[in-house]
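call fold(seq) -> tokens
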Amino acid sequence: MDEFNCEDLPHIRVLAGENENGPVYESLPARQIDDDVYELLASPGLTLNLARGDVISIKDPSAPAEVLTRGGNFCIQIYADQVPDEAVAKLEREVQQQLGGTLDGQFEGNLTFSVPGRHGIYNVNGPFDAFREATGVEWYFANIYANLNDDDDETLLDWWLTA
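ret:
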């Protein structure tokens, strides 16, 4: 996967969820394909069910984006107050070397990675589990579950079986 500077790319606003103040949006780099249709150029750091390469539709800005076509990447999110720079650099290097993935975003201790789905869900764990063991910080797949509104429902989307 090629590295690029997302800051210079056009961005879209995607509904990430809601908090006590109302809707929360995330700005993501994207390439417009058609009216209300975009290809994501990086995986999100907040929004669930999306990843780099997905083609999405946003007809209603107050509703979650609709995935039209999966781009073939896992979105892996990490949330922490702080992560040592050395640990981030090591994880980024290992994800790139072992999985061909990229660090798509970082804000303080929050990290977002894109990893090709062709590896399968159980074969991407190595670098991320090593990171958890070294730092105590958990990681999460952000685009594998069918029911985003029920934390107890672990039904998988299985899109990676054909990636």
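The CA atoms of residues 29 and 81 lie 24 Å apart.
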